[in-house]
Design brief:
It comes from Henningerozyma blattae (strain ATCC 34711 / CBS 6284 / DSM 70876 / NBRC 10599 / NRRL Y-10934 / UCD 77-7). About 50% of the residues lie in helices and about 10% in strands. The protein is of the alpha/beta class. Among the domains are: about 25-255, P-loop containing nucleotide triphosphate hydrolases (Rossmann fold), CATH 3.40.50.300; about 265-480, P-loop containing nucleotide triphosphate hydrolases (Rossmann fold); about 495-565, no CATH class. The N and C termini lie far apart (about 80 Å). The structure holds adenosine-5'-triphosphate. Adenosine-5'-triphosphate binds near residues 69 and 227.
C-alpha cells in the first residue's frame, strides 16, 4: 500500500515537473516571438513573464507598465545586455528586477545552484530599497535573497551568502566577499545588474567595479541602469556589456534635442537669487511658510546638515525635523529613512547620500540650499519628488555669483527653473537668534565653525569654476550669518601657493582676509600699517570679548582638534629648529650677579668692548670625545711624535683612517636619508588615503565602524516574506526589517488619495506639537 502511495506521489511530482518544463518552454517561445517594436503592451500581464512574478507584482499593486519597463523588460527577457536610462522616478527598479526573477525562474534555479544574480548599488540606502522591492515582487517565487552592505561581520555574512540566489550590495562589500573567497561562488552567475552605475563611478568605485566585473563569468547577462547619461557611464557600458541594447538613452538625447527637459514633466522647478549670507534666513522663512508639506533640504556636507538641523531644532519652526548624512550610524540612517517615508509633514535635512535612487513617497518639495556640483546631481536631487507621475516642486538657492553660470548649465539640459522673488513681508532674519544660540552653546559654535569650513572647502574643490567662485565668497558675512563672531581660519592644501599668487596679483580681499584669520576667526594684525589691514581689523565689542572668554576654556579641546593638524603642518614649515634640552643648573656654580647702580657703570656693563676687555681675549677650544675642552693647538712632545713613525707615514695613516670613517658615515647618512624619504612618502600616502577615505565615508558612510546593521535574507525568499493567511505554502516568518506598517504605503500611487489634516504618524504628531510650541 505504502509502495503504491509512494509510486503515485513520484508520478505526480514527475507530472508537475513536466508541466513546469512545458510552461517554461511556452514562456521561452513567447519571449522569442515577442516583438517590442510592434508591441502595444500596457499591463505587466501583456509581457511574457511567469505567473509567479505576475502574482507578486499584483500583490504589490504594480499592474500598469511604465515606459522604461515596457521598452526594456522584453529586451532583457530576450537575454540581451541592456544600457537603460530613464528619468528619475520612472520605474527603473522593476525594469531590472523582473528580468532577474524571470531568468532564474526559466533556469529552474534552486538553492543548490548558488548565486544566480548580483545587483550592485552605490549606496546602502539604495541597496536596502532594492532589496525591499525584490521581497515584495518575489513573494511568489522560491529564491533566496540577501543584502551585503557592510557593517556586519564578514564571517557572519559569508556563512549565509552561500545559500543566496540573488545578492544585493554595495561595491566595496561585494568585493570584500569575493576576495575572501568563502561562501561566495560566482561561477554560475547568470545576471549582473549595476544600478545608478555612473554614481558608482563618481564615488570612486571604478577600480572596485572593474575588479568585480573581471571576476565574473563572461557568459552572464548584464543590465546597467541610470537616470542620467555621462561619459563615464558610456565607458563602463563599453567595458562591462557585450552586444548591448540602449534603452531610453536615445530618448534622453532626443528629448534634449527636441527641447524636452531631463526632469519629469510633473515637476515645477524654481530658483531664487540669494546672497550666501541670507541663505539660512531664507530657508527658515521657507520652512515656516510650508509647515504642511513634506520636504527634503539638500546641503553640501554632513557638517552643514548637522549644524542646520541642530540650530533649527532650537528655533522650533513648527514642523518635525530630521537629518540624514553619511556620518551617522547605519541604524540611525535606516530609521530616519523609514520615519521620513511614513510622515506627511516633515522636513529632512540631507546630503547627497539620498540624492539618487531613494524612493520617498509623496515628497512635496525638494529645496537645494547649496548648489549641486553639476546638473546631473541637480536632476537626481529634484527627482526625489514628482515620482511616478506625481506632482512635485523644487527650489534651488543660487548666490549672485552662481546664478548665471548654473542657469546656463541647466539650460544645456533644457531645464529652465522659474525665478521666484521672496516677499519682503515674509522675510525674517534668524541671525540674532543664531548668534545667541551659539553664544550659549559652545558645542554649537564648534559645529558652526566646522560647517563654515566644510562649506568654504566644498566651494574651493569644485571643478566648475564658472559657477563656483571661491575668490568672491563673502566669508565674513557668511560666518556672521551662521552666528559666528568671525570667519574661522582655514588651511587648504595648496592655499599657500594660491595666496602667494594672489598677493602678487593684488589678491581679492576676501581670500586674503580668510587666510589671515586667527583661530578665533578674527583677522590677525600682521601688518597694521597698511590701510587694508586697518579696515579689516574689526572693532570688538564687549559682547564679543565675553563670548570669546566664555568659549575659550570649554572649546579649547575643539580648537585643539581644529588646529592640531595645522600645528603639525606648521612644524614642517620650520626648516631649522632649536631643540631645547634640559640642562641641570646648579645654583652654586652660577656667577654672582651684581647689578650696576650708576648710569655710567650700567652703560659700561652693556658695552661689548668693555666686557671683552674685562675678560681678556677669548680662547678657542676644542672638545675631545670625553667632552673635555682643550686649546685648539695642543702640541705633542717631539719624542712622542718621532716614536709614532715618519711624518709622511703618519699623514698617510691619518688620511686612510679619516677616509674610512668618512665612508662609513657617508653610508650611514645615505641610509638615514633614504629611510627618512621613505617614511615621508609613506606618511604622505597614508594621509592621502585617509583623506579620501574620510571624505568618502563622510558623504556615504561606507567606511563606518562595523556597528551598522546588515541584512541578509534567511536563505529562502519565502521565509523573508510577510505571512499570507490564505496560502499555507508560505512560511509565517517575517523579514526582520519589513516595515511595521505596510498600510502606510498602500494606495501610494493612487491619485485619489485624500490628504488628511489629522496627524498620521508619530512624526506628524511631533510636527503638530512643534507647530503648537512654535506659535
Ligand atoms: N509599474 C508601476 N506601477 C506603479 N508604480 C510603479 C511602477 N513602477 C514603479 N513604480 C513606483 O514608482 C516609483 C519610482 O520607481 P523607481 O524607484 O524604480 O524609479 P527610478 O526610475 O529607479 O528612479 P531613480 O532614478 O530616482 O532611482 C516607486 O515608488 C515605484 O514603486
Amino acid at each position: 500500500m505504502a509502495k503504491k502511495e509512494q509510486k503515485s506521489k513520484t508520478s505526480q511530482r514527475k507530472e508537475q515537473r513536466k508541466r513546469e518544463q512545458d510552461y517554461i518552454r511556452e514562456l521561452e517561445t513567447r519571449i522569442e516571438e515577442y516583438n517590442p517594436k510592434n508591441s502595444n503592451a500596457v499591463f505587466f500581464k501583456d509581457l511574457p513573464i511567469s505567473n509567479a512574478t505576475l502574482r507578486g507584482l499584483k500583490e504589490a499593486s504594480f499592474v500598469k507598465l511604465t515606459e522604461i519597463q515596457k521598452n526594456s523588460i522584453p529586451i532583457s527577457l530576450k537575454g540581451y545586455d541592456v544600457l537603460g536610462a530613464a528619468k528619475t522616478g520612472s520605474g527603473k527598479t522593476l525594469a531590472f528586477l523582473i528580468p532577474v526573477l524571470e531568468k532564474l525562474y526559466r533556469e529552474n534555479w534552486t538553492e543548490f545552484d548558488g548565486l544566480g544574480a548580483l545587483i550592485i548599488s552605490p549606496t546602502r540606502e539604495l541597496a536596502i530599497q532594492i532589496y525591499e522591492v525584490l521581497l515584495k515582487i518575489g513573494s511568489r517565487t522560491s529564491f533566496s535573497a540577501g543584502l551585503v552592505i557592510g557593517g556586519k561581520d564578514v564571517k557572519f555574512e559569508s556563512e549565509r551568502i552561500s545559500r543566496i540566489n540573488i545578492l544585493i550590495g554595495t561595491p566595496g562589500r561585494i568585493l570584500q566577499h569575493m576576495d575572501q573567497a568563502v561562501g561566495l561562488n560566482l561561477n554560475n552567475l547568470q545576471m549582473l545588474v549595476l544600478d545608478e552605475a555612473d554614481r558608482c563611478l563618481d564615488m570612486g568605485f571604478k577600480k572596485t567595479l572593474d575588479a568585480i566585473v573581471n571576476n565574473l563569468p563572461i557568459s552572464r547577462q548584464t543590465l546597467l541602469f541610470s537616470a542620467t547619461q555621462s561619459q563615464s557611464l558610456d565607458d563602463l557600458a563599453r567595458l562591462s556589456l557585450t552586444d548591448y541594447k540602449s534603452i531610453g538613452t536615445l530618448d534622453i538625447v532626443k528629448e534634449n534635442e527636441t527641447g524636452a527637459s531631463a526632469t519629469p514633466e510633473t515637476l515645477q522647478q524654481s530658483y531664487i537669487d540669494v546672497p550666501l549670507q541670507d541663505k539660512l534666513d531664507t530657508l527658515f522663512s521657507f520652512i515656516k511658510t510650508h509647515l504642511k508639506n513634506k520636504m527634503i533640504i539638500f546641503l553640501s556636507s554632513s557638517k552643514q546638515v548637522h549644524f542646520v538641523y541642530e540650530t533649527f531644532r532650537k528655533l522650533q519652526p513648527g514642523i518635525s525635523l530630521m537629518h540624514l548624512h553619511g556620518r551617522q550610524k547605519q541604524k540611525a540612517r535606516t530609521e530616519t529613512l523609514d520615519k521620513f517615508s511614513r510622515a506627511q509633514q516633515v522636513c529632512l535635512f540631507a546630503t547627497d547620500v539620498v540624492a539618487r535612487g531613494i524612493d520617498f513617497p509623496s515628497v512635496d518639495w525638494v529645496v537645494q540650499v547649496d548648489c549641486p556640483e553639476d546638473v546631473d546631481t541637480y536632476i537626481h536631487r529634484v527627482g526625489r519628488c514628482a515620482r511616478y507621475g506625481k506632482q512635485g516642486k523644487s527650489l534651488i538657492m543660487l548666490t549672485p555669483t552662481e546664478e548665471a553660470g548654473f542657469l546656463k548649465r541647466l539650460a544645456s539640459k533644457k531645464i529652465e527653473p522659474k525665478k521666484l522673488v521672496i516677499k519682503q513681508s515674509k522675510k525674517r532674519s534668524i541671525k540674532p537668534q543664531l548668534q545667541s544660540i551659539l553664544f550659549q552653546d559652545p558645542e554649537l559654535k564648534y559645529l558652526g565653525q566646522k560647517a563654515f569650513i566644510s562649506y568654504v572647502k566644498s566651494i574651493y574643490i569644485q571643478k566648475d569654476k564658472e559657477v563656483f567662485k571661491f575668490d568672491e565668497l563673502p566669508v565674513e558675512e557668511y560666518a556672521n550669518s551662521l552666528g559666528l563672531p568671525g570667519a574661522p581660519k582655514i588651511k587648504i592644501k595648496g592655499m599657500k601657493s594660491i595666496e602667494r599668487a594672489k598677493q602678487k596679483k593684488n589678491a581679492s580681499r576676501s581670500l586674503m582676509a580668510l587666510s589671515k584669520m586667527n583661530e578665533d576667526g578674527e583677522p590677525e594684525n600682521i601688518d597694521k600699517s597698511t590701510d587694508e589691514a586697518k579696515q579689516e581689523t574689526k572693532v570688538r565689542t564687549k559682547y564679543d570679548k565675553m563670548f570669546e572668554r566664555k568659549n575659550q576654556t570649554i572649546l579649547s579641546e575643539h580648537y585643539l582638534n581644529i588646529t592640531k593638524q595645522q600645528a603639525n603642518d606648521d612644524e614642517d614649515d620650520d626648516f631649522m629648529t632649536i631643540k631645547r634640552q634640559d640642562h641641570k643648573l646648579v645654583e652654586e656654580e652660577l656667577p654672582d650677579l651684581i647689578v650696576p647702580t650708576s648710569k655710567r657703570s650700567q652703560k659700561k656693563a652693556l658695552s661689548k668692548k668693555a666686557s671683552l676687555s674685562s675678560k681678556g681675549n677669548a680662547t678657542k677650544m676644542v672638545f675631545d670625545d670625553d667632552g673635555q675642552a682643550h686649546p685648539i693647538y695642543e702640541l705633542e712632545g717631539e719624542e712622542e711624535f718621532i716614536n709614532k713613525g715618519s711624518a709622511e707615514d703618519q699623514k698617510k695613516e691619518f688620511l686612510a683612517k679619516e677616509t674610512e670613517v668618512m665612508n662609513e658615515v657617508d653610508i650611514e647618512d645615505k641610509q638615514v636619508a633614504k629611510e627618512k624619504k621613505q617614511e615621508k612618502k609613506r606618511k604622505r600616502l597614508e594621509m592621502l588615503r585617509k583623506e579620501i577615505e574620510d571624505e568618502y565615508a563622510e558623504e556615504y558612510g561606507i567606511n563606518e565602524e562595523p556597528e551598522n546593521e546588515a541584512f541578509l535574507g534567511t536563505g529562502n525568499l519565502s521565509d523573508d516574506m510577510e505571512s499570507d493567511s490564505d496560502d499555507d505554502s508560505r512560511t509565517k516568518k517575517e523579514v526582520s526589517y519589513k516595515r511595521n506598517n505596510e498600510s502606510d504605503y498602500e494606495g501610494e500611487y493612487d491619485d485619489n488619495i485624500i490628504e488628511m489634516e489629522e496627524p498620521n504618524t508619530l512624526e506628524d504628531l511631533e510636527s503638530l506639537t512643534a507647530k503648537l510650541i512654535g506659535n
